[in-house]
Amino acid sequence: MRITFLGGTETVTGSRFLVETETTRVLVDCGLFQGYKWLRRRNWQPLPLGINHVDGIVLTHAHLDHSGYVPVLYKHGFRGQVWTHAATAALCTVLWPDSGRIQEEDAKYLKKHKLSKHEDPEPLYDEKIAKKALQLLSPVDFKQQFSIGDIDFELQSAGHILGAASVIASHGGKRVGFSGDVGRPDDILMRAPQPLPELDCLLLESTYGDRRHAQSEPFQDLADVVNETAKAGGVLLVPSFAVGRAQLLQHMLVTLMDEKRIPRMPIYLDSPMAIRVSDMYGDFHEHHKLTAAQCQHMESVIKYTHSVEDSKQIGNQTGPHIIIAGSGMATGGRILHHFKHWLRDHRSTVLFSGHQAGGTRGAKMLGGCEHIKLHGEWIEVKANIRNLDGLSGHADYAEIGDWLKQSKLAPGTNIQLVHGEPDALEAMRDYLTKTTKYDVDIPDYMSILRI
């Protein structure tokens, strides 16, 4: 097998790995680049190596940095099958059209207010293309074997979010693993990732390769932020990923209210996508820790805002309240409109609850920037900026190390570190080199590995 690293190298986003034999070409993950503008430009570059003509695509999970480039390939003529877990396929029916719709709306906004360098700004793909691309999805279960050409595949649960998987590819007596995003062993919502089988090579995520998660009590940390903001009379703004994080935050907030650890106040889930995803977590409850009854209770307490008009009405709400809205890194979505309303208010708090890729608004705000550009306007940041690292859906370097120890990887197994910023990749390599006998390396963008 030959693997070409088309993304996910020296950055967290843009996961794309081209796997080739003499007769078969498969793309494992097909994600969007996010964050720095120089990275996002790759989404617009000519398709590399004719990936719109691969024999098939296998997705580890539904997050857009792993799946959101599929509509681009469809736009360029790809009509092969996209294999993934059934829950991931369901989530893509929400994520892809929403991504296309947001891109359309942003392009129209930029054109209307003449905020783009281009006279007629266009989306990378629109909602119509995204919906058409959904017909390519081929759902499979964990541990179900399937083949694309002469390569055999199998998915196994990786925790992280609903449907997330590690991909195992076999050909000619060689076996390669693609970790995808690896969940935590003691996640509040998701079950622990399954140990890996014996492999010749593993492409391993390194998002938290240089950090340990805070050893604190996440429910108490969240309660402290809510209570501090409510006491000040402010609003709690929570930029959130629609898949996984929004459901976790709802569960935690409802639990804290039920236990009377925070005051009762309105909680808005201002994301049609996150609302639909919450329904899916109920449909696939056997794949996470919450029961169907817990999912239903959560949805009965939270105020769901479907329409743009409903979203605007939140601005009329007085007194302390909580707004959960996309996107998780504040790169787009309805949270930006709430930012314009509340970022100048020193009583309010912006609470981030996951990794913020370099260059995103989330990373800049956590870095202490005093102004943020929103729809062409610079907004002063007076609100308190907080982070709940303990809610991350990614295993940290020590947790990944423990996961590898539970797996059947032999000494000398080749490990290629991906899905990490440069500092995290270097730290992860140092950690694994010191604590294991694996052969660890960091691939370059567009580099080739032969197995």
Q: What features would you highlight for this structure?
A:
single chain; 451 residues; alpha/beta; Metallo-beta-lactamase, Chain A; Rossmann fold; seven-stranded mixed beta sheet; globular
Short description:
This protein is of the alpha/beta class and 451 residues long. The protein has helices spanning 37-40, 64-67, 70-75, 86-112, 127-133, 218-232, 245-258, 272-283, 292-301, 308-313, 335-342, 361-366, 397-406, 422-435; strands at 2-5, 16-20, 25-30, 56-58, 81-85, 137-140, 146-148, 151-157, 165-171, 174-178, 201-205, 235-239, 267-269, 303-304, 321-325, 349-352, 371-374, 377-380, 384-387, 414-418, 439-441, 448-450.
In CATH terms, the superfamily of the largest domain is Ribonuclease Z/Hydroxyacylglutathione hydrolase-like
What is the CATH fold-level name of the largest domain?
A: Metallo-beta-lactamase, Chain A
- Gross geometry: globular
The level 1 CATH classification of the largest domain is Alpha Beta
What's the end-to-end separation, in Å?
5 Å
